[in-house]
Specification:
Elements lengths: L5 H16 L6 H21 L8 H12 L3 H8 L3 H8 L7 H11 L3 H7 L1
Helix pairs in contact: 1-2, 4-5
Amino acid sequence: MSVSTEQDYNEAFKKIDSLIAENFEDNTDKQKEFLELAKAIQDYEKKFYPLPKPETVVEMVELKMYERKITQKQLSALLEITTDKLSQILNGKRQPDVTFLKAVYLKLGVDPGFLLRNA
């Protein structure tokens, strides 16, 4: 299946919805169709609805939170900082300090060059 227009995109979603409604888990042909539709939709979205690249440390941290599907509370525990400090940084009330930037690098794998250019 190829999704190359907005109409194809909408039709693919309708088909996905109908497959879900049919409870397709026991049908390997429908499972294959579902996966092909999902891949086609994903490819279309990457091309026509790309996520903007983060330009600030805060945007990068928010992207990492989204990718990992974690909350601010979970992130603060991961970075070993208080929830208050994280909240202040994310809301622009406090500048990221070296400890925060080091934790973002080590725990989230953010490129140190990005952190230096954008801190």
